[in-house]
Amino acid sequence: MSPAQTPVDLRPLTALRFMAALWVVLYTFWPNLDVSFLPNLAAKGYLGVELFFVLSGFILSHVYLHAFAEKRFSYRGFLWARIARVYPLHVFTLLGVMALGLAAVAVGMNIDASVLSWKSLPAHLLMLHAWGFASEAGWNHPSWSISAEWFAYLAFPLFALAAWPLRKRPWVATAGAAVFLMGLYAAFERLAGFPLTEATFRWGALRIVPCFAYGCALYLVYRRAPLPRAGLLALSAAIVMVASASVLAWDAITVLAAGLLILALASIPDGRAGWLGSRPAVYLGEISYSVYMVCAPWQILAVNLAARATGVEDKRLHVLVWLGIILGLIVAAAATYHLIERPARQALRAMADRRRPPVDHTAKQSETVLQPSDTIV
To answer: pLDDT 10s per residue in the chain (377 long)?
Structure first.
């Protein structure tokens, strides 16, 4: 299929977002499970964020790159759409953690002082807390990746300027992005003493750069021509990704395989995506941002209540209680999606629509259709 014939709504990628979020959830909640072992795959769950970052570069290129090249790209409109997508839920979950922290203090419970980090609050509100402007980790910790995404959004024209000239040599662009990713990972770990994939508040803005660039380059391959035998390639890439994480291989290998999985899933012809294109899978993908953002406050609330109810002082819960909490997280995420995330996004985008002249209906419809899957967390 040519790029003009490819489906606008890449449903398998929407479903993939939920898998990435669930991987992060597994990583976050595993310490609360009463077992004596930690599977390597769970230990590598932080790489679910890398999967989100690569996916973000791919999808935003899918939506905006051609418009950028034809000078139809509105930077202000793009940033407003991104704010509408991520900011309302970011503020809501921050306030949720604030309420939980203040309630804990009021009843005399001991909490980590960094949770209510008042001096880092301005950086969180401005989404600058993964740029090195937050003095300590606090509030809703997973939101550091939203700050990193905001950095990539602001820099999107630079990514587009680098990608577009290589549109006729997409595999060259992809190879270059892969080499850049591996080189940066190796150099950062040697200089900093820890992997870039484990950076959050201090180096989160840098962490997204190689992944986002890799996603943009992979989109050029898809734009030139979707891959043949995409289902088989997707399965192969998924096996490599899971296997590399399970044997604790270098994180770069897992991230590169994740990117190929994204490319392969995007290349699956419309109507042949199977369960990845089903309504339940796509719905779970649509609420994945809420799953990710509600994860930390839900852990604070649900784990503490469950531990108190079951008399477990170390907060290591029976597997059935633990599974109930995970299912409860998905229910809570669905609630915040319908009550906070989606209505706020629609209201902010409607506000922008009222302030600008009429636009081409087809172009606007394309962007709206893609909206559920066009960012991370």
So the answer is: 334 344 467 889 999 999 999 999 999 999 999 998 999 999 999 999 999 999 999 999 999 999 999 999 999 999 999 999 999 999 999 999 999 888 888 877 767 777 888 899 999 999 999 999 987 788 999 999 999 999 999 999 999 999 999 999 999 999 999 999 999 999 999 999 999 999 999 999 999 999 999 999 999 999 998 899 999 999 999 999 999 999 999 999 999 999 999 999 999 987 788 888 899 999 999 999 999 999 999 998 999 899 989 988 889 999 999 999 999 999 999 999 999 999 999 999 998 887 766 655 444 444 433 443 444 44
Sign of CA dihedral 40, 41, 45, 48: positive
The amino acid at 241 = M
Residue 9 lies in domain: 3-373
Helices 11-29 & 251-267 angle (0-180, nearest 10)? 150
CA atoms within 13 A on the CB side of 166: 22
Q: CB 123: neighbour CB atoms within 10 A?
A: 21
Number of domains into which the chain is organized: 1
Q: In terms of Cα–Cα distance, which of 96, 158, 150, 100 is closest to 126?
A: 150
Instruction: Give which of 334, 289, 327 is closest to 142, Cα–Cα.
Output: 289
DSSP for 97-148? HHHHHHHHHHTT----TTTT-GGGHHHHHTT-TTTT--SS--SSGGGHHHHH
The two structure tokens encoding residue 324: 């109930």
Instruction: Tell me the HSE value of 320 on the side-chain side, using a 13 A CA sphere.
Output: 1
Longest dimension (CA), the chain: 63
